[in-house]
Amino acid sequence: MLIVLPLIGTLLCFLLPRQVKALGLMTALAIAASAVALLWQLLQQGAMRYSVGGWGAPLGIDLYADGLSLLMLLITATVGLAISIYANAAFKLDKLVHFWPLWLLLWTALNALFLSADLFNLYVSLELLGLSAVALVALAGGSAALGAAMRYLLVSLLGSMLYLLGLALLYHSFASVDIAILAQRMESTPAVWAAMALMTVGLLLKTALFPLHFWLPPAHANAPAAVSALLSALVVKGSFYILLRLWLEVFPLSHAAPGQLLGLLGAAAILWGGVQALRQTRLKMLIAYSTVSQLGYLFIAFPLATTMAWKGAMYLLLSHALAKSAMFLAAGNLLLFGGHDRITQLDRVAQRLPLTLAAFALAGVSIIGLPISGGFIGKWLLLTAAMQSGEWGWAVVMILGSLLAAAYIFKVIGYAFTQAEVTHEACEVSKTMGATAFVLALAAIVLGLIAPWLLALMDIAEPFAMSSAALNAGAAA
Amino acid sequence: MTLLQWAFDGLLGITLIWLAWRTLASADLFKAIVLFIAFGLLMSLAWVRLNAPDIALAEAAIGAGLTGALLLVALARLNVVAAQTGDIESNTKQISAPEDSARTTAVVGQGVSNKHNLFQYFLVLMLSAVAAGLAYAVLSLPSEAPGLSRDVAENLNVSGVSNPVTAVLLNFRGYDTLLEMAVLLLALLGVWSLNRLPEQYESSPGLVLDMLSRLLVPLLLLVAGYLLWVGSRAPGGAFQAGSVLAAAGVLLLLAGWRPAARFLGWPLRFALIIGLAVFVSVALLMMLPGGQLLQLPPAFAGALILLIETAATLSIGVTLAALFYGSRPRSEQIPPHHTGSGGENE
Lengths: 477, 346
Hints:
heterodimer; A: about 475 residues; mainly alpha; 2 strands; about 75% helix; about 0% strand; globular; disordered C terminus; B: about 350 residues; 3 domains; 13 helices
């Protein structure tokens, strides 16, 4: 079971702090293996429903796996495994004894979240996710990281409270917290609208959509590199996943106005994040603002709401997870190597850390959305969806966002090739750390090559079919 | 409902809101914490009035008692740290409410304060609008909602316990509780991963504290045991019992007692995780005879729930007491040749 495994790993790592390296890595491998096993099962028999405790909804809690949750689990396993290997090389043992239990709990939370079909259970896993993320940010130590962690904690708690309040309204109205049952009983009442607003705002706060992104750059930039990668690649996607489930299945989508609003915020995020990224002088801050910008793309799918748009957003989400984790790991290497991450003083790293820089450049290709990368497929699907609906505005914003991304990526790569005047003492960066970043970046590119296969996976149980059928039947080709 | 009950409820509600306001507006942190504890106690009264004695117990023990103790000890530590850096006043005593800071700004510059005030009015306006919308939504709800209580009542006889709250927490939705236990462990892990505070050594308490702790600790242990046992039939259970257990631990820590170093290594860690470990093992064992995860067979459900709850009580108690103690104990030291700066340095 995907949820129990990391939990057992946590307990073992906590009990035997001296063996964390081996124990943690074994757990990570086991989780990845069981994610693949789930892929096999789903391919054989389609979507699965599992009743914990044998009670079944509405009394008990159901787990549910379809194409959407499967892909999220697989990407978590891929990125998770790579970061596990990276962390073992990057951290010293005194940090690792804390990192492993916290990280495995975070993994538990992510897996639980992607498998849950129960809104209250989602709340619990959201809490687990938020708290472990905060603890991991604080792991860096120092006042900047602690301040960022504290702010992240407050934001995260506020988001959870809003979600819980909305949930209480739903439970009172429909006497269930199971997603499928709620979807059947749903009707348009003031309480439902209030619940929808509360839960959406709470989740947006956690997903850091503009203008609720203010907490993200300091938290993601001040954490240790492995943690930054986890946060940007996976944690913000957790709350986005819940939001997607809510919008696709629970709330009636007969009104398009809220979707338009989310799309507008997404567009603002793309541009604002891009411009801010361009203005940063620190590499990690640049990457963090790039996350703000890339998250904006995911919300462009909400006003379009066609199957193709959802798939495009999903594709972008996956490739962003791979590319952004690769980028943060590469930035971590550069930081360790030079002792700083000032972009203008990158000091010929092209020759001295070729693997790391290659990882950064490849990840950049996917972030910009150049052809054959995963990012390209996602943006292509979104663009096509926008043009098919005749909504050119979204397409223009997306292209502008890509230009901005190209500008800030090339700015970094440009400085990496120039020769700085002061050459300083460089620290050794282990081969493993460069290699893991490179493999992740390569995976982001490969994602573009296996597109037909992945898109077929998304169709398991057709998680995107419902809303598009309800909203504009026939608009999707 | 009689007039007396109306009057009582009204008074309770108004007092709660007033206390909450005073807590937020208080410039003195110590006073704010005391007000917060009072708020928690009254809140548990409100739960009693709402016929939710389980929540009332939890609110009194955890919301008012332990959270209050945690806040007070955090304030005390803050004072120590601030005294070392030499500015107690600015750090702890004078944390001012937003109104105060607005007033301070007014002294500095009229233009700035105008902007600030405008923003505040805007904020108040927005929040009022949100509150009004929420109130409308809540008022539009049907006043009677059955929820799932009928389903729970129907399945109570196969759950192994007769207290519906325990049945929901440990059987019907045991998976949620499993994850909640993980959250509690996570809180401690988070605190332990931070830098260590200056060590506190065993100290001798005053006569009163010494006598009191000798009398109270056995009593608290007894109460914890009772709450745990009675949880299957009446309000009570692992969380309440665990927090009472933690109160005993806090009292001992306050009285200056420190556990011997040989208990601080893996015995402590074992006690911290046994609740979660037993829960996970039971959950997995239930799959062996072909059941689902966490599917408790009705014949053994009562015994299994008691087993899980006993382990959970121990873990909850130790975890909360450890949270009160703060940083991880000294014997947790990794061998010296491994310690050093972290993996990254900015």
